Amino acid sequence: MVNIGKQRKPVVLGQVTIAPASTAGNAPPTSSMSRNNSLIRQAFYHFSNLLTMKILSTLFLASLLVTGTAAAQAQTLPVLGTFPVGATTVTVSALSTGLVVPWELVWGPDNFIWMTERGGRISRVNPSTGAVTPLITLADVATSSEGGLLGMVLHPEFSTSPYVYVVYNYNDNGYKEKLVRLTYANGTLGSPLVLLGNIPAVSTHSGSRLLILPDGTLLMTTGDAQDRPAAQDRASLNGKILRLNLDGTIPPDNPVAGNPSYTFGHRNPQGLVLASNGRLYSSEHGQDAEDEVNIIEPNRNYGWPTVEGLCDLASEQAYCSANNVREPIFAWAPTVGVAALTYYDHPAIPGWRNSLLAATLRGNKLTQIPLNAAGTAASEGVFTLTSFGRLRAICVSPQGRVYVSTSNRDGRGGPATTDDRILVLENLAYVPTPTVTARQEVLGLWPNPARSSVTLRLPSPATASLPTELRDALGRLVLASRFVAGQSSLEVSVAGLRPGIYSAQVLTPAGSFTQRLVVE
């Protein structure tokens, strides 16, 4: 774990009633880690993002591109500067300008950027031209200080389930927060369906980052809404990471039956990303001592309001030991207002591989947080992009470009005439190789790591018989099977294999495509 320069000091859920639970009786951190890690480490983010691109390009992409936004055309963007990342020169360009607090950037299955702006507008952004196509402006969004339209995520099977999930603040006998599902059709968003409402809110500390896991459940971060005890109260929705089914119901395997809370003890978590190493990371605003990057594990306590940052004070250490507290792997001190978080492991910028990238508001910078090979520890952060003011949202394209939004019109920044902007960070000298692109788009593995079996997934049904192989670290063939025509998933038993690293390979007319598999 890393700490930089420490300076210390009735809820309605559809038709379901939330079951309160006591924090007593939680297993100590050391005994709960292996049990809790298994669910998260099996998550594989390509399933919900990159693996859908092939099938969408034939069915759904065409319908998107005829709805008023022309297909992306290559053009030269205004270059704002460069900076080095190791031996790589990263160029910063302006993609879109004149925005108003873009809070969320999501790389969509149509290869466009989907964006929320805090005032209530949702748009698609052409990643080549920067053209912004509005899809809807939500009339009941209530903006107040930090509140408004916030997080967004798209359904992983968007071609057949064209749903967009958003979180925003609204007024209804007080200031509140809700999770809403919208439906995309004919170039617009509509048909709002409230999945979770009546969440207590104030003008700050709303959390609101969304993520869909490969198991088809949705995670939603919530802040404490300035009610500190709520973070430790399992009957409250505040100060939590919630886990729901995509219809708003509670999964039966949540840590507490009938309760949507997945983790608790949060102040204001505003970043959430599932990395290709299978770990789930979150970034969180501290009060004034430390901001955090956490590894999220189910049923863990993240300490707030008793603990801020690392468990390094005597009073904190005693509390952490007694209350199943998961320490952050990285902390900023003093606080930097950490917002969105993403994981980067693309060869386009080699110096950023296996790193978290965090946008910061008060810090006015992008922070690279290098991880160890296991993804369990972080090195000291490297600061870049320091000349553009407050930074809030971030996403990465399949080509390795990084898109970052400024937040200088949120009432706390000094906006330039072109703010707010979406900036593009890219290595202009990078030439993608077919091997990298094919591996990311063609073959998916779930779960990974695997214990008893693994499912190989194709983005669309095989059109012919496709041989598959599993080889050990020495290249020896240990298992062989095949996809039959019309099949898009293939389950293979690995129960008889020794723990270790293997390669799964599918042989197609276009070539062979490989993914790494870890067997536990």
Automatic annotation (TrEMBL):
The keyword Transmembrane helix applies. InterPro entries: 6-blade_b-propeller_TolB-like, Glc/Sorbosone_DH, Quinoprot_gluc/sorb_DH_b-prop, Secre_tail. The chain crosses the membrane at residues 43-66. The keyword Transmembrane applies. Residues 445-519 form the Secretion system C-terminal sorting domain. Keywords: Membrane, Transmembrane, Transmembrane helix. Residues 101-412 form the Glucose/Sorbosone dehydrogenase domain. Gene3D superfamilies: TolB, C-terminal domain. Pfam families: GSDH (PF07995), Por_Secre_tail (PF18962). This is T9SS type A sorting domain-containing protein.
